[in-house]
Amino acid sequence: MEIVIRAAVAFVVLWLVTRAAGRSTLGELSSFELILFVVLGDLVQQGITMEDRSLTGSLLAALTMIVLAVVLSYANMRWPRIGKLTLGRPIVLVRDGVIDRRALSGERIGLDELSMLARQAGIEEYSSIRLAILESSGKVSFFTKEAEAKP
Predict the structure, then answer these.
(1) What 8-state DSSP symbol labels residue 75?
(2) 17-55 pLDDT, tens per residue?
(3) Residue 135 CA to its chain's centroid (Å)
(4) CB neighbours (10 Å) of residue 30?
(5) What is the distance of C-alpha 101 from the center of its chain?
(6) CA-CA distances (angstroms) from residue 146 to 8, 70, 120, 123, 130?
(7) 138 Rama class: left (phi>0) / alpha (psi -120 to 50) / beta
(8) What's the pTM value of the predicted model, to 2 decimals?
(9) Under the phi-then-psi rule, with left for phi > 0, alpha for psi from -120 to 50, and beta for the rest, what region is 135?
(10) What are phi and psi of 109, to 5 degrees?
């Protein structure tokens, strides 16, 4: 039973760490960050199973993590308020060509990164952006004024 409790605590801690890392960071991990998360997972596993090398301990820890992920996914679907808490809300970064610097700062997104994302979406100037929204997935959705004018 102790393995289940340790796995549940590790699940919550890992969830908090990934939320603290920020949406845009998780959307595009560098090679080093990916390796760091894999190593972190191995370190957490050892803490969960208390260096237990048995197949039962490993399977129990993995099963606990999977069950908690499924329960969280179901709770997000069933109760929208929980989804807003666990997944986060979309955040407006640009509205009518005006950049919300407070939102950028809060999500740790620089102007260079926002400019790069806008260019990748085929947008040359901020003034042509009607809305730029940072989705909970870490991707930025752009809506231009030209698209609004088309029937």
Answers:
(1) H
(2) 666 665 544 455 555 556 656 766 776 677 676 666 665
(3) 9
(4) 9
(5) 20
(6) 49, 41, 17, 11, 9
(7) left
(8) 0.60
(9) beta
(10) -115, 125
Q: What is the dihedral of CA 99, 101, 102, 104, to 10 degrees?
A: 90
Which token pair is 137? 């997935």
116 three-class SS: helix
Q: How far apart are CA 139 and CA 10, in angstroms?
A: 27
What's the residue count for the chain? 151
Mean pLDDT over each residue of the chain, to the nearest integer: 79
Backbone phi and psi for residue 141, each to the nearest 5 degrees, phi listed first: -100, 130
Cβ-Cβ contacts under 8 Å for 51 (sequence gap 6 or more):
none
Q: Please state, in angstroms and as integers, the Cα–Cα distance from residue 145 to each residue in 85, 90, 125, 127, 149, following that order.
A: 31, 20, 11, 9, 6
CB of 89 closer than 8 Å to CB of 110: no
Q: Do the beta carbons of residue 61 and residue 6 sit within 8 Å?
A: yes
- Spatial separation of the C-alpha atoms in residues 112 and 124, rounded to whole Å: 13
The distance between the two most distant Cα atoms of the chain, rounded to a whole number of Å, is: 64
